[in-house]
UniProtKB/TrEMBL annotation:
Coiled-coil segments: none
One of the Pfam families matching this protein, by short name: Flavodoxin_1
UniProt-annotated stretches for the region Disordered: 162-210
The keyword Flavoprotein is annotated on this UniProt entry: yes
GO BP annotation list: homocysteine metabolic process; methionine biosynthetic process
Protein name: Methionine synthase reductase
Listed cofactors: FAD; FMN
Cellular-component GO terms for this entry: cytosol
Secretion signal span: none
Domain FAD-binding FR-type: residue ranges: 279-544
Length: 748
């Protein structure tokens, strides 16, 4: 086996798996491994290495309904081939880290599937697989120990590894990569002698009133300034948490708005028309926006907004069921605060808007080749998510106050700070600006800061329209997210709060961008109403190829959004078929008689009520049922979104059955949800699923709703489908999933 050869392979949808893989790859290079970093879909690049014998570390997430990420789907299909030789990977030694979310029913499905299939194809695991849960906020508790144990396992595997090579060299800037017990003790003693804290180095950031400082989460014995953190508890400083920046000696231009930055990046790209990505999104103009909930902006806990985007001249082609990625910026107040904290350590003559290039590597993976600090912090770096322990360890190096440094080291510690880390950072959802505000002596240079911040991921929303109904429009619906953390801190969603503020001029009245542009000031305001978007085509959440198959749609709350697109698509298709049929049955044939005289009417005939229902009478058309749920059907708290559209689809026959569950209405005090409505129609649903080939779609909250609906369907199959036992019903639904007749689009 070639000495110290390593392949780091990843499958990543949101960037987490890729970030971990890049960090591991950089560490491997520092440790003199011959390391290569590739997405799993580039597996063919490793064919010679696999034949010679190599070691692979695979980090892969699971997305959607047990699907592989887009950059690993070809590898997933390849290893699943039953024609593969049982000795295909006999020379491969590997390990797998799977990322998943226990809110979904297929937790770490892809990672576990890769692990199982590699074993079946002759590979041998040199280190146990680990599964990290993104849904509970405990990823670090799995990932950190797994990464630490990985290197010793690799050293054992590579007997020729140089002894002592596990200590990483110093990072640029003179930071120490190791912490001696004596230095920690000295700092603890210094902290004990500090009577007054250092004054804040920057203006105070407005913090949430219920946010608690770290000391409130520490046991008295550890909170004591005299406490000495044991050397074994202090992790080594990772040498790759540094990015090389080269600032350009150019005149500082006025910084464009976030929307302008995206436009500039798009113009500089070489993508063809219609091709848009997270790195090069399309700036879609907002045509209109409205509240779908009755209380509108007055509601604190439930505001749903519909926006219509103009995609004319974009070349975009989407299908109902597709999702749209939105690239939202960080709040201006956050960006300004973090920039102020780094201003003191910027090189002379450099400002937040000075362009720079970087040396690449994992630390700079989220950054474009050339940008400014303001652009990096506004568009590319995640300032909202709580920092991971390695980042806290690195920030500790930049605290002037010894007490603050000790506290950050404690949070980054291997075991002693675990409960404080979970309660202080994760449960409070502490953002990076808030962390810096609570540690006022911490002033990381930009080379460090940009290396610590993960990429700002796009947010995805289901398309709520059909291009058959309007080729240049794309509609979305979203809830303005507002929630309270376990510790009582009120939080808002980053993207939804930005979107709501962006379209506020259109929400305050019956204003549209058409009326807004009637004045010069309004024209400028309308130009600013752009949303950077790109398409994420669905892999399985799409309508059946033929309308002959029945559809059962279950979408409470904003989960109904893609089904509005489904129904709009079927309505537009029905109208088109009727018009085509009418066109074919009008005018004069060469035979010399008038077809209109025979069939009556023509292309211009007005549509009679229920005419789209008659559309079903030609080719057999399957029924379409929609189960929708919300709190209130009427009154100021009404949150029956898209009511007019639903009732319209029911009236014209596109929708066969509309069943709505209103959980807070009624005098019985018994809450009613969509699963209760489904149970009430169990016999009909069993008939559709078992005998008419119905497709079952579920969209919405994955924490409880999807599981409750799944359980209700099992009960229906047992009671009305003659299956006798739940095991048989489970097997039936599993078969439906594999045939993509039971499809979920759920989120946590």
């Amino acid at each position: 086996m070639p000495a110290r050869r390593l392949a780091v392979l990843y499958g990543s949808q949101t960037g987490n798996a890729k970030s971990i893989a890049e960090t591991l790859h950089d560490e491997a290079l520092k440790k003199d491994y011959e390391s290569v970093l590739l997405p799993l879909n580039k597996y063919k690049n490793l064919t010679p290495s696999l034949e010679e014998g190599t070691v692979a570390v695979i980090i892969c997430s699971t997305t959607g309904n047990g699907d592989p990420p887009e950059n690993s789907d070809r590898f997933w299909r390849f290893i699943k081939k039953r024609t593969n030789s049982k000795t295909l990977f006999s020379n491969l030694k590997y390990t797998v880290l799977g990322l998943g979310d226990t809110n979904y029913d297929k937790f770490c499905f892809v990672g576990q599937g890769i692990n199982r299939r590699l074993l079946e194809l002759g590979a041998s695991a040199f280190y146990p697989m680990a599964c990290a849960d993104e849904g509970t906020g405990t990823m670090e508790e799995t990932i950190e120990p797994w990464l630490e144990g990985l290197w010793s396992a690799l050293d054992k595997l590579h007997a020729s590894a140089t002894e002592g090579n596990t200590t990483a060299p110093s990072s640029p800037g003179g930071d120490h990569t190791d912490v001696e017990a004596s230095s920690v003790s000295d700092e603890a003693a210094a902290a004990a002698q500090t009577d007054e804290p250092q004054p804040p180095a920057s203006p105070v950031l407005e913090l949430p009133p219920d946010l608690k400082p770290l000391d409130g989460f520490l046991p008295d014995s550890i909170a004591d300034p005299a406490f000495v953190l044991p050397e074994a508890e202090v992790p080594k400083l990772r040498s790759n948490l540094w990015v090389s920046l080269t600032f350009e000696p150019e005149p500082v231009e006025e910084a464009p708005a976030a929307e302008g930055l995206w436009v500039r990046r798009r113009r500089a790209s070489s993508l063809a028309e219609g091709q848009y990505t997270a790195e090069h999104p399309f700036p879609a103009r907002v045509r209109a926006a409205r509240y779908l909930t009755a209380a509108g902006a007055a509601s604190r806990d439930r505001r749903v907004i519909h926006i219509e985007l103009d995609i004319a001249r974009s070349g975009m082609a989407y299908e109902p069921g597709d999702a749209v990625g939105v690239r939202c910026p960080n709040p201006r107040a956050w960006v300004d605060y973090v920039l102020h904290r780094t201003a003191a350590v910027l090189p002379p003559g450099v400002t937040a808007d000075t362009p720079f290039t970087h040396g690449g590597g994992a630390a700079a993976a989220a950054l474009p080749p050339r940008c400014s600090l303001r652009e990096a912090l506004t568009l590319h770096a995640d300032l909202q998510s709580p920092l991971r322990k390695p980042a806290l360890r690195a920030l500790a190096e930049h605290c002037e106050d010894a007490g603050e440094r000790r506290r950050l080291l404690l949070l980054a510690s291997r075991t002693l700070g675990n409960s404080a880390y979970a309660a202080f950072l994760q449960e409070q959802r502490l953002s990076v600006p808030e962390l810096l505000a609570l540690f006022p002596s911490c002033a990381p240079p930009p080379e460090r800061l940009l290396a610590l911040l993960p990429p700002l991921p796009p947010r995805y929303y289901s398309v709520a329209s059909s291009q058959l109904a309007g080729p240049d429009r794309l509609c979305l619906a979203f809830s303005a997210v507002r929630y309270t953390t376990k510790s009582g801190v009120e939080r808002e969603g980053l993207c939804t709060s930005w979107l709501e503020a962006l379209v506020a001029p259109l929400l305050s009245s019956a204003t549209t961008t058409s009326t807004l542009t009637s004045t010069p000031d309004g024209e400028a305001a309308a130009a600013a109403l752009t949303v950077p978007i790109f398409l994420r085509p669905t892999k399985e959440f799409y309508l059946p190829g033929s309308p002959r198959w029945p559809c059962i749609l279950v979408g409470p709350g904003t989960g109904v959004a893609p089904f509005i697109g489904f129904l709009e698509h079927r309505e537009a298709r029905a109208r088109r078929d009727i018009e085509d049929s009418a066109a074919a049955a009008s005018g004069c044939w060469r035979g010399g008689f008038d077809i209109e005289a025979i069939v009556g009417g023509g292309c211009g005939a007005a549509e009679a009520p229920g005419e789209l229902a008659q559309w079903r009478q030609g080719e057999r058309k399957g029924e379409t049922w929609l189960f929708f749920g919300c709190r209130h059907a009427e009154g100021p708290g009404c949150d029956w979104i898209y009511r007019e559209a639903m009732e319209g689809f029911k009236a014209n026959g596109v929708l066969s059955r509309l069943e709505c569950a209103f959980s807070r209405d009624g005098d019985s005090g018994q809450k009613q949800y969509v699963q209760h409505k489904m149970a009430a129609h169990g016999a009909a649903l069993a008939q559709l699923l078992l005998h008419e080939g119905a497709y079952l779609y579920i969209c919405g909250d994955g924490n409880d709703m999807a599981r409750d609906v799944h359980a209700a369907v099992l009960d229906i199959l047992v009671e009305h489908g003659g299956m006798g036992a739940r095991d048989a019903a489970e097997a039936f639904l599993k078969d439906l999933k594999e045939r993509r007749r039971y499809v979920l689009d759920v989120w946590s």
